[in-house]
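TICKET: design request
STATUS: open
ATTACHED STRUCTURE:
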């Protein structure tokens, strides 16, 4: 009998990628095989993103392409909550489910492409199926979010914060490390809130009690002997507690904290924490505890009501904070977001002009910060080896979103190797290095 074959399209953020990995792990465990072309698949699952309008359009197009090329399509992911919109454009879709509805997706696949049951064959490695390279993996610690930022619809798509028990998270982390993972990227919508919903309940890892709490998780992950990188950390005061773990080398000296803006007026209207002076003081504190800490953040320019003065305040913050890595987006209305009702939208041309100014200022800061690394020795992690040499990342660089380190001629290195290098040159975003002797 022929093995049923699944095609899978995974769109969106790392959290959606983790959902895709869970669904694939389950299907693979049931004997489905995974194929990489529409024509080889018996059915295609599309995991969609609904975060901004461009992502919605990309998702709808991906569903259309899968239908055209294959015909049997199950849709899941964030866009799934907007079922009518999908059905309107693609009425032939077999089933639509929302985000992290693993069971429902698997049931839909069973209904339209029954599994071949073979209980004697273990087809799945213990760490599950992963879509990232072998040497790094995303570790999702919770779903949903208790905040209600006015530009965001994630809480309506994914619900309130629901943390995974710490024992389960640590078991998964251990399995990943045993499978060769060298770097764990901790993701969620709000990593620092981990465990709030469970009232920091005590769980167990290897028989040892651990609280379901950001600090305890960071500390336990720090014992695994690999790189641990914290993403999507909300600037709560208790974040200060994990910085000493970075200074001690237990977890990477890296914090990804989306500040979004620096004007009190705009932060209030975004429903974000407002004390910008506190943020600057906190950054100074973190740097005093762990001087090598790399700070990454994201911002939105052109939010409704943003005046020239608000924008100047944002630039001043940027100059004062001197962050290492920064992403910036122009505000774009997301269907269903409360911010759509706010008065005084900023014209597109002004948004674009502010974005260009913002990125210009940050490029100079980033270039300066990278220049200060020249001559320093550091450990890097190799992501790719090409004809010209190795492409790696430093401790300050997350995959996909930050810079890279190029080591010309170092073709003796292998993907997933840690290596000692000395930084020799830099541009605005990337570094060049030579192997340390
Ligand atoms: S913190 Fe704000 S932006 Fe982030 S997921 Fe929660 S509501 Fe959305």
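STATUS: resolved
RESOLUTION: sequence designed for all positions
ATTACHED SEQUENCE:
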């Amino acid at each position: 009998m022929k093995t049923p074959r699944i095609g899978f399209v995974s769109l969106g953020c790392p959290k959606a990628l983790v959902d895709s990995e869970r669904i694939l792990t389950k299907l693979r465990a049931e004997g489905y095989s995974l194929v990489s072309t529409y024509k080889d698949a018996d059915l295609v699952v599309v995991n969609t993103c609904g975060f901004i309008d461009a992502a919605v359009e990309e998702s709808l197009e991906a569903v259309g392409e899968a239908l055209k090329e294959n015909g049997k399509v199950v849709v899941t992911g964030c866009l799934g909550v907007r079922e009518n919109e999908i059905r309107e454009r693609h009425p032939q879709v077999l089933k639509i489910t929302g985000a992290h509805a693993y069971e429902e997706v698997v049931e839909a696949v069973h209904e339209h492409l029954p599994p071949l049951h073979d209980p004697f064959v273990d087809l799945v490695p213990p760490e599950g199926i992963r879509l990232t390279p072998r040497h790094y993996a995303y570790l999702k610690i919770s779903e949903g979010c208790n905040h209600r930022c006015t530009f965001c619809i994630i809480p309506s798509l994914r619900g309130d914060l629901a943390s995974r028990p710490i024992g389960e998270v640590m078991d998964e982390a251990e399995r990943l490390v045993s499978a060769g993972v060298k770097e764990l990227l901790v993701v969620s919508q709000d990593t620092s809130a981990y465990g709030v919903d469970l009232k920091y309940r005590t769980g167990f890892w290897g028989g040892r009690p651990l609280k379901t709490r950001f600090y305890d998780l960071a500390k336990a992950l720090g014992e695994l002997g690999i790189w641990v990188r914290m993403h999507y950390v909300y600037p709560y005061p208790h974040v200060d507690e994990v910085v000493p773990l970075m200074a001690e080398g237990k977890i990477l000296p890296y914090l990804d904290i989306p500040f979004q803006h620096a004007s009190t007026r705009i932060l209030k209207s975004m429903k974000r924490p407002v004390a910008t002076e506190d943020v600057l003081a906190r950054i100074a504190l973190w740097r005093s505890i762990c001087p090598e800490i790399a700070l990454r953040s994201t911002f939105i320019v052109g939010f409704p009501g943003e005046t020239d003065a608000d924008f100047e305040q944002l630039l001043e913050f940027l100059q004062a904070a001197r962050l290492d890595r920064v992403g910036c987006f122009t505000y774009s209305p997301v269907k269903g977001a409360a911010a759509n009702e706010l008065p005084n939208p900023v014209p597109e041309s002004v948004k674009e002009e502010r974005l260009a100014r913002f990125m210009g200022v940050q490029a100079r800061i980033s270039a300066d910060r990278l220049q200060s690394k020249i001559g320093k020795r550091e450990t890097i992690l190799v992501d790719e080896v090409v004809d010209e040499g190795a492409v790696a990342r430093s401790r300050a660089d997350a995959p996909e979103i930050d810079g890279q380190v190029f080591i010309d001629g170092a073709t003796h290195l292998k993907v997933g190797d840690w290596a000692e290098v000395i930084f020799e040159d830099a541009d605005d975003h990337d570094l060049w290095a030579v192997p340390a002797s």
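CLOSING REMARK: Residues 5-112 form a domain with the Rossmann fold fold (CATH 3.40.50.12160). Residues 145, 147-149, 152, 154-155, 189-190 surround iron/sulfur cluster (CB under 6 Å).
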